[in-house]
Specification:
This protein has about 70 residues and is an all-alpha fold. It has 3 helices and no strands.
Length: about 70
């Protein structure tokens, strides 16, 4: 659920009167977007590292391949 999408304005939290002002704040939306970008970047970096280790392990096991 992206804070800049129309779905964000229809979610359960924004319908709660106690949370409405907080969740609809542009700074909060920006912070949530920033956290999402950092998390996605960290996940991709970790995934790339896993593929690199896997590829290096395969190359060590079969030195005659490719």
């Amino acid at each position: 659920m992206a804070p800049w999408s129309a779905y964000w304005d229809r979610n359960l939290f924004i319908q709660n009167p106690a949370l409405h002002a907080w969740v609809s704040n542009r700074f909060i939306r920006g912070a949530i977007s920033g956290i999402g970008i950092v998390t996605a970047t960290a996940g991709l970096a970790e995934l790339a590292g896993a593929f690199r280790v896997r590829r290096e392990g395969t190359m060590r096991e079969d030195p005659g391949a490719g």
